């Protein structure tokens, strides 16, 4: 069940957006549950109490708060890096601060059904039809991790280190095997020893990428052009071939 939060201080717009989301989910055969908030402070309080959502549709300017403040709560306070944020705004330009929270999309007011459907269709294309579980074996035991929570893999001899949002682990195997298992799931081979999850890259910096947790991952010289192509492909809503 996909959980979606809508936050706009105009109740009519909030209800309209919720209706468009529900209609879009029916069209796209997405099983979803939508909850609306007309207060950013109320939404933040609910998040601090332990609630979470997979997608947030946030008005940038709220009467009692801002979309930036709510985004900061999502990313930096409750540490949810997997959730996708869609900003809704009546302005033509966007504050550069917004990009620090890695928004999934922007919707301009006045919006219509097609805009909302296109956003959810893109989300479903990227995240909804993938197997989100990565299985690995260590010793005689099998383990699993959600792909959406994996930051990167690092090859270390005969072992592979797996770095997740809240923990780390390792298993016997090769990075090549991991690449094959996760083909088409948004992973980028930046270096012969590193396979990173694109959604957790904070920014690219010359011959390295900086992850959301601050880890610095090297980029091989021969991979820079290919990675730039992948970055553009991902930003346009698709996954590059091969990884």
Keywords summarizing the entry:
Rossmann fold, 32% strand, five-stranded antiparallel beta sheet, single chain, alpha/beta, 2 domains, 15 strands, five-stranded parallel beta sheet, 243 residues, OB fold (Dihydrolipoamide Acetyltransferase, E2P)
CATH class of the largest domain: Alpha Beta
Number of helices: 6
Strand content: 25-35%
Evaluate the radius of gyration: 19 Å
Major sheet strand order: 2-1-3-4-5
Pfam families: LytTR (PF04397), Response_reg (PF00072)
Modified residues (4-aspartylphosphate): 59
Domain Response regulatory: 3-124
Keywords: Phosphoprotein
What does this structure look like?
The modification 4-aspartylphosphate is found at residue 59. Residues 3-124 form the Response regulatory domain. This is Stage 0 sporulation protein A homolog. With 243 residues, the protein is of the alpha/beta class. It has two domains: 2-128, 3-Layer(aba) Sandwich (Rossmann fold), CATH 3.40.50.2300; 140-235, OB fold (Dihydrolipoamide Acetyltransferase, E2P), CATH 2.40.50.1020. Helices cover 30% and strands 32% of the residues. The strands form four sheets. A five-stranded parallel beta sheet has the order 2-1-3-4-5, with helices on both faces. It has a five-stranded antiparallel beta sheet with strand order 10-9-8-12-11. Strands 13-14-15 form a three-stranded antiparallel beta sheet, with no helix packed on it. Helix 1 packs across helix 4 and helix 2 (40-48) runs parallel beside helix 3 (67-77). The chain is elongated and about 60 Å long.
